[in-house]
Structure formats: structure tokens, C-alpha cells
Amino acid sequence: MLYELLIATLILVSTCSILLLVTLIKLRRLVRAYSALLKVREESSIARRIRKRYVVFAAVCEERVRSSELKDAVSAKFKELFSESTYYKASPQLLFFDENTERGVYRVAHLYVDYFIAALGLVKTVENKRCVIVPLRTTGTLRKARELARKLKF
Amino acid sequence: MHYKMGYTHVACLEKHLDTSPLSAKMAVVDKIVVSTSSVDELREILGRIEYRGKIISVHPTSTKVARWSAHDSRVDTILVTPSNLKILDKGQVSVMKYYDKPLEIHITHLLHSSSEVKSYFYRRLNMLIKFKVGFVLGVPASSVYELVHPVVVIKAVKTLYDIPEKFALLALTNIPRQLISRKLVA
Is B159 in the A-facing interface, judged by CB distances under 8 Å? Predict the structure, then answer.
């Protein structure tokens, strides 16, 4: 009787340990799969494509300013505030600036839109002419930006 | 131009003739800045001036004055500039939180100061956010060309001082509007 009981206990213990082992193996596989998934996601986020944003702005100056002068003033302000390395990463480009309506569009990397808007709005002089630059809207397409530059009221 | 830039409530030190036509669209109130290092002097000045229709801003140059002005109901804001930045310590912030007294900081000081002063401001501003004390971002301008667009102020404060947009927006809209509206009613 005692012998049978002992054998039954042994069988029960061995079954439990096998089950535990199987569960552990499954869990390990799950953890591995999850960590692999995280790694893939992280890699994809690093290599994510840098998208473009178009910032529509209006300039109010005491005298007429040329686009090249405006471009120099904005880039100088950006470099002064956020250093040259951030400027390269943001790579702001003046796509067009209408000297009559004083409206224009800048293209900038999507990660640095906030930096660019801060620098753009803090430009106070363009070639010794006092100016206020107001960022009007930010869009994802150039067509929409051109449309807004024409339509938006300030 | 002020209205176009998004400014609807303005507190100014000096009113000129060109300010009056704007008053239909904008709420303009007077502002007085009291700079002192003695409590007695501050008490005497506050007793003399008509504080009901004006924004009273105290520029304390000593810790004692800063503590005293934090709990006086006649004082609307406590102005902090690079010259008196060191009065703003943990004790001052907790008193200001208790009496719900906002701090006033000028955006020009945040942008055009030395690196050392900027680092002071960085630590103090982040301490204010940690303590959840309201602050007012002032844009001192004597002409239209010195104005800064509110969106630009928010983005600049966010990128340069790591202040969440939510707090920067409050510092430009709700807190100063409450102060000015209170004075318009009085």
C-alpha cells in the first residue's frame, strides 16, 4: 500500500515538473519573440523616413525685403538659438517668397518644425530693417501651402 | 496689429495715444512695477497707489520683500528678472503656491540673456512646473516690431526650456487673462 502510494506521488511530481518545464519553454519562446518584435520596431523607428513640412508665413516689415536677405536672417537666428548641427538636421529651405504680398513658404524636416517656428518668429531685423514674421500654418504638401499662402488673411 | 497677432488683453506701463483706438477690440489696463528691497517701503507705496484698476507687479530685490509680496492681496504678480533671480527659491515657490500668486517672467530675458542666466531660468521654470505654480510670460514691446507671436513664444519656450506646451499656453492665455479681467471689473 505504502509502495503504491509512493509510486503515485512520484508519478504526480514528475508530471507536474514536466508540465512546468513545458510552460517555461513556452514562456521563454514568447519572451524571445516579444523582444525580437521590440527590436524590429526600434530599428524601424530609427530608420524612419524624414518627412517634409511646409511652413507658411507672413512678414510685416517697415521696408521691402528681398528673399535672400530674409533667408540669411532666418538661418542666422536658427544657428544662434539651436546651433549649427540642428540647422543641418532641420535643413530649412525657403521655397518661395512673394515680395509684394510678403508671404512665403519654408520647407523643413518634420522633427524640427517647432525649432524652426521658434527661430522664424524671433527674427526681428532683416538687413537693418525692422520686421515681424508670423508663422501662419504648417502643412504636409506644397500645393496646400501655396494655396494657404494665397488665401490666408493676416 | 496687436489684435492681429492674437493679443486681446494687454497690461501696459505707459498708455500712448495710439493705444486708445484699439480699446474697442482689446482690453487695455495700466500696470505698475514696484521695485524695492524693503518691506516698509513697499507697504508705504502700496498704501499710496490706486491698485484696484491697475496691475501691480512687484520686483523684489530681497527675499523678505518677495515673501511678503507673495501673501499680499494687492500684489498681482511677482516679477523676476536676471537681477533678482536668486530670490526665487523653494520656500518662495511654496509660499506662492499657497497664496496662488503667479510669477511674471519676460520673454526677452529668456531669449537674450547670458548662458548662466538662462541655466538659472531653466532650473527655476522647471521647479515652477514641478510645484504647479502658475507663471505669466510677458512680452515687453514698445513698438509693433518688437511683438512676438504667441505661437512663437510657446514653441521657443518648449524647445529652449523644455516647458510643456500646456503650461506655456496657460502662461500666455488663462493666467494673464484672469488677472486683467479682474482689474477690468474692479
Answer: yes
